[in-house]
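lol ok so funny story. i was supposed to be doing the assay writeup but got distracted and ended up predicting the structure for this chain instead. priorities right. anyway since i did it might as well share w the group, maybe its usefull for someone
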Amino acid sequence: MSVIQDIELKSKKGKRLYIGIYILLAVMVIVQFFPMLWMFLGTFKTDPELTSTIPTMLPESWKFSNYVEAFEKYDIWKNLWNTVYIIVMSILIQVTNSIFSAYALSVMKPKFGNIVQMVFLATMMFSGTALMFPLYIQMTQMGLIGSKWALILSSSVWAYSITWFKSFFDNIPRDLFEAAKIDGASDLQILGRIVLPLSKPIISVMCVNSFMAIYNDTVYPLMLLPEQKDWTIMIRLFVLNTTGTPRPSHMYVLLVVATIPSLIIYMMAQKNLVEGVSTSGIKG
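and the output, tada:
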């Protein structure tokens, strides 16, 4: 449903309101993207330009070598590879666990399923800070400190994701499951051939949510991955910003590089994100 109906556009008042809304949206887009544009242009400036008391929008002389110097000095390619590996493995395990757990609770309805669901929800009541010390002891006993799998396994189960998937599965018409069982389909076949194709929007939403949670985290990765060779791009930024003295131009390069993955993920999942948000609360 549009804000302004077609019949309203025929009036002068409606046309002025329509133009006003577009102007307002255009201004807001500029305001939102201006910091990103400033950050991007800053990667081509010299350090004196970036620290000058009188800032300039465009670089006086475009210094493309800032990217080469930053990538070589901080081994950014290694940080990016660590980030991609940890996030991909974490999301694959987490989403798979969430789908199977939610399907069992929503469709198969095992005995004491409500109690299991309450236990899942109870884990969301504990803050991450309170769980840091027990998690560190657990990973130490498993001999995983300094291994990427320490971070991957700690992100492999998320009660929030299970709850979202269960809510979505609850809204799928039960007639589909009954018809499939009459045709002799097993629960695994129903999950693969009926549930998963219908769940593409919610899977995209959960993948993006998981990506943002894991990608932006710095506390757990820094605790579980003490060696620089295992650092993600966000740990590199965090350490440089708190304890290092990086050149301003190199810091701008790192900020741009750290922003690109989020933009790519959102552009790829934009359509399914809208569908997932609009259908997650609709009864089938």
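The two ends are 21 Å apart (CA to CA). DSSP finds 15 helices and no strands in the chain.
back to the writeup now i swear
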